[in-house]
């Protein structure tokens, strides 16, 4: 056989060997893409039996309750790792089943937390173009949840929803009252307070004396850790760090504008001016459908000064 023919056949054989792995890789990639598409569309998965799904739903409910008890967010990664295990593609079915169980049995549901805002220059620089676009369009997902009540407003009273008895009812009530006050304070100041102004307000309310269960600094650290507050530190060369305080992601969900307005009216108590909601809307920067109704009169119909 001529040498040229032998070389040609060897090259053809080598080409076939190179093409085959590429085909296998392409088929594998197509299969993975199809799996991802199926998961995104409906989350269908073949589990051993219906009892397996029921077991996973109960497991997720327990996990959600445990997270809320500790006031830590329910993370999607945590659900996959600690609940789903070998059934990661069952997420949607199990999540929907747990939501139904939580609503029917506990009067609660998992609500997604808003995405944490980038406060400092360094955080904004690290943010990718895709993340910035998603944040601007409001399509970004935090993939974290907390439990919120689904009870009708008529049942959301102190006599029905009492403070937790752990560590004690009185301590829990004081803690809830403090973070509600602080969140309302920040929200009514445009959503941001400088460190100096923040501690000036705390000093005027005698926080050190009115928080008998712990030091103010320790309580603030706890509020930041649990997501009620955000402490943004902007480092600058040669100067002191610039510190600002903001409402955290959990704080925005647990103490929405309606709760801030109710808190203000409770503090005001009597002679509430007719235009109080209008004032609150202006302070909170609420417009359009997000604004509180302005046609409600105060308790005594008094005009504001």
TrEMBL record:
InterPro entries: MAGE (IPR037445), MAGE_WH1 (IPR041898), MAGE_WH2 (IPR041899), MHD_dom (IPR002190). It comes from the Eukaryota. Residues 1-10 have a biased composition (Basic residues). Residues 31-45 have a biased composition (Acidic residues). One of its GO terms (cellular component) is nucleus. Residues 60-260 form the MAGE domain. Residues 1-50 are annotated as: Disordered. This is MAGE domain-containing protein.
């Amino acid at each position: 056989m001529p040498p040229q023919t032998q070389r040609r056949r060897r090259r053809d054989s080598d080409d076939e060997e190179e093409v085959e792995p590429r085909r296998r890789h392409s088929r594998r990639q197509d299969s993975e893409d199809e799996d991802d598409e199926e998961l995104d569309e409906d989350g269908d998965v073949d589990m051993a039996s219906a009892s397996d799904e029921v077991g996973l739903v109960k497991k997720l409910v327990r996990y959600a309750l445990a997270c809320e008890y500790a006031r830590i967010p329910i993370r999607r990664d945590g659900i996959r790792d600690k609940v789903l295990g070998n059934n990661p593609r069952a997420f949607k079915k199990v999540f929907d089943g747990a939501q139904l169980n939580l609503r029917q049995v506990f009067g609660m549901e998992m609500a997604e937390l808003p995405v944490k805002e980038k406060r400092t220059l360094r955080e904004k620089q690290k943010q990718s173009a895709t993340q910035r676009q998603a944040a601007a369009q409001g399509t970004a997902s935090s993939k974290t949840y907390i439990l919120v009540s689904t009870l009708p407003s008529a049942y959301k009273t102190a006599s029905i929803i009492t403070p937790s008895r752990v560590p004690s009812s009185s301590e829990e009530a004081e803690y809830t009252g403090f973070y509600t006050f602080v969140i309302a304070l920040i929200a009514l100041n445009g959503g941001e307070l400088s460190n100096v102004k923040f501690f000036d307000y705390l000093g005027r309310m005698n926080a050190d004396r009115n928080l008998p269960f712990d030091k103010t600094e320790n309580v603030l650290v706890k509020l930041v850790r649990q997501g009620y507050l955000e402490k943004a530190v902007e480092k600058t060369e040669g100067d002191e760090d610039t510190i600002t305080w903001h409402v955290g992601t959990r704080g925005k969900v647990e103490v929405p504008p309606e709760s801030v307005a109710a808190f203000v009216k409770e503090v005001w108590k009597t002679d509430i001016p007719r235009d109080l909601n209008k004032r609150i809307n202006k302070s909170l920067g609420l417009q359009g459908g997000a604004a509180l109704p302005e046609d409600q009169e105060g308790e005594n119909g008094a005009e504001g000064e």
